[in-house]
Amino acid sequence: MNNIDYKKVFSKLSHIKALSHDQKFDQIVQNLITHTLNQKYGDNPKNETQLADKINSIYGISIRSNILLSNIDKLLSLNEVVRDQSTREYLVTIDVAKRLNKRLEEASDLEKTVKNKWFQELKMLFEHLNDKEIEILWDCLKSYLCSVFEQHGIQTLQILNPSSKINDDDQKSLTAIIEIIASRQVKIIKKEIIIASINIFITNADEERTIYISQLADSSFTSFALTSDAETVNFLNQRYNNLIIFLDTNFIFGILDLHKNSEDASAREILEEVKKNKLPFKLAYHPETLSEFKRAFDARAMHIRASKWTRESSRVAITVDGLSPLEELFHRQNLDDEIDPSVFLDKYDHVDLMLKDLGLIEYSPHGYTSDEEHVEVEGDVEKYQIFYENLPSRKFKSYLGFKHDVVVIREVRRLNPKKTKFLESNAFFISSDYILAKFEKIHYKRNWEINYVVSPSVFLQLIRPFIENDYTSNKRFIDTFSIPEFRSFDIDYSETRSKALQILNDNYHHTSFETKVKILRDQVILEKLDKVNEDFDKQIQIIENQIAVENQILTSQKAEALANIEQIKTDKDNIESEKNTAISEIKTKNEELDTKAEELKTKDQEIIDNQIKYKEDLLEITIKSIDDSEIRHIPIMKIIDKKVKANTFYLSLIPILFFSILVFLIFKLTWNVMEPITYLFSIISIIAGYLFLAIQGESFNPVKYFELFKKGIKTRTYDEFKFDSEELERQKRQKTNLVNEINLLKKK
User: Fold this and answer.
1) Average pLDDT over every residue of 152-174
2) Where are the domains of the chain?
3) pTM of the model
4) Which of 15, 201, 324, 660 has its CA 20 to 30 A from that of 404?
């Protein structure tokens, strides 16, 4: 594609994801315009030419000016875009800017959530990976999705627009794409880890991851559609005509769940979406396709019919990868409940009825109209054989297989006489055979003519604008981008492995399970068996020799194991002896510890007893001292009481004498003479009393004075008799403390 910078497109897909896949073409263009005008860097465009340049600068998409002009006019009329009165620049309104920013923020948050959840999965699966290596895996994933979606978008658009050029690089298989990506990181991360990580991202997708991937795929197709001609615009704005969809053999295997290819796995989705959304398609198969299916089925069923399978053999078969899905299905059923192969295979004898029940019809071809047409068919078959044989890494294909492809594709092209436009087509051939698609492009397709061999994933993209967008549909759609299973060798040994399994089942029942699995997984043995594929006896000899080798290895391993067992027994006995010795020593040490503990307990009790005795002696001395002091203290207290009473009496005489004299004078001299003198003496006596109390310095309270006076008498009396009252109080406190300490020690 020469008018799209896909790397830039992929880097901006968080913006383009907002262009929902179920919108019409004009709405998609209008969304892209508003997203472009909402960018905050550079000057805004003033006309459609500048707008086209800015879209190309930001998103890498070139859109014709006439398409932009018609849609900018619609946005102006809807008042979603306005023109600045002075600069004449196009601007989005505030409400539109808020809506766009919210959608972009949601898209960015979705990507962060998806990325973080995937990182957590990888850290659990590959614990040795560091943060830098996980970031490299994210870059590998983006490169893979970029390449796959670029190729997918080009192939889808080429169906709509046959004039678009498609290079061989745009027709690489998913395997080839991942090989290129892995080769760039081979020195840092192993290819197997890169493949496993990408497959985990796709196949383990939850609803958020499914939305993210399907949005990327849809926006890729949208990006290409925006650069296309009117035919693509019509496709996005219209519905399909009635079409006959011819289904290839691999598609039928996919419908019946008998195929592993991720492209064929989308067969059921196409079938279900056609029914669910009532799309105007007739899903049909050519009689040649049914015949080829039966031939391919019989070839796969031959190994099942050839033996009576035991459950042990089925367990081996399920353990070994690389058998056909039909064989795996049989062995899973046989493992649960042994089943006769003919009973299992009988239902497929009427595959036409099974397909009819699924909604498929058998197409009735017109047949050869002349000998010349028969000659043309044979000539095309020969060309196809030559073309096929010149390809590297090709699988074996029979003459009837070549003829089937040629007959069906010729019939499809016959039903499309105009051979120009997609929307006017009458039939397509759905096949995941990219070699057949390449052959059609080289030997049948003319200029301005579309391809009629379409892969299931491309066809799914073509119908996505017309189907209900839910998690199930999105999940099965993105599963088509998972990487096919890788093997160490490019050679397909599935048939050889099936024969080897049959030989082991029929002739070597008693061979160990591990030996059988090892033989079926050994690529070198499978290569030897493949070289003598037609000589059954030699195949048996190869397997027998390998079993003998394995038996020798097992014998050697058994002898080594027995020697190891004996050594383990000896080591065990030594350990047991050391254990018993250690137990005995521990017992002795424990007894010694018990003795020491008992001695320590006795010593502690002796110390306590000594402390009690010491304190009791001290208490006895203290009590005796207190008793002696109390004998002296009692008469002293009596003397103190007498002194206090005497002094109190003398003090009480003072006011009595004062008032007696005063009364006598009033009587002798009369009240008139003594009244002023009485007041004066009263005032003087009051002042003198308070002055006395103030001079004493203790308090103006007389009660307080008498207490101090009594205390002074007590102190002077104690000094007079040389008695220490404080020492007596101290001894009483000591007595109380000693009693408490003795009681506490006795409780221990």
Assistant:
1) 50
2) 1-238, 539-747
3) 0.48
4) 324
